[in-house]
Fold this sequence. Notes:
4-stranded antiparallel beta sheet, globular
Amino acid sequence: MNIRTWLFVCVVLMIIETTMSADDLRAKYVGKTDRTQDLKSAAGRYGIRLDSTQKAYLSAYELRQAHILTIVQYEHDHDSCGVIRDVVQSHGDDSSFVWECVDPKNPSEIVVGTWPAKHPGVTGPAVEAWSIDVTHLHFEPIRNGVNCDAGITLDQTKATAWQIGPESVHPNAPNKTRGRQKKIRIT
């Protein structure tokens, strides 16, 4: 088998594995409450409001085996339990989700990305990225050069997080009335 064929087979197998993992992840979480035992026992949790009209939030969880990002929809603004509409997983064990990202090909889209938790700067290219379909509350992977700004994310030490609540709004959310953002300490 020549090297080109071998590389092709490896790429196909990686795509199949990623697709199966994404399907397994969706089957485990989508349509279920955000108060499952494994999410409640997460080492860290942080998030931001996505869309006030749909009462939708982005919630990131640092689980023992993975870092995941969910879109959670609540019936009322101050509910403590919501329904997970979609979920994605970061492939890096030591990565953080970054809220302020831009896809240069579609600058008006809402985009989130990842980069290493110890990223050396406040801006840079995303390791992974997803656009968010706000109408359907769904993630779509982006495979081109997305740039991110750490203005709204966990800090480098992961000692503080943005509170999930009505006062936090994603910077590109359809409703442009961003409120104050309040930091809380993770325990």
